[in-house]
Amino acid sequence: MQHPDPDEKLVKIFDTEHESEAQVVKGLLDAMGIESDLTSVDAAQETFPGVGGAVILVREEDAERARRIIEESKEAAAAGEDSEDEPERP
Questions:
Q1: What is the pLDDT of residue 1?
Q2: What is the pTM for the complete model shown?
Q3: Please, which residues have CB within 8 angstroms of residue 35's CB and are 6 or more apart in sequence?
Q4: Is CATH 3.20.170 the right assignment for the domain spanning 10-81?
């Protein structure tokens, strides 16, 4: 698994409170050939309860494509959920 070079300009393209969700998105990007870096964000829970999660960074030149891939994946998942709610027709 490759990560972007830390000397390159990296941009945040995704963040979530759930690291498992970030792992899924990172896997999607990896599968599409976009190198990304997943960073956990932990805050002192006694000071900032509920603050934390994960951030995904990609090279600046990959950011637009990565965002598009994530958006298309969300739309496909939503479409799949909608079709599950409809009763099957004979």
A1: 43
A2: 0.71
A3: 2, 3, 4, 29, 58, 59, 62
A4: no
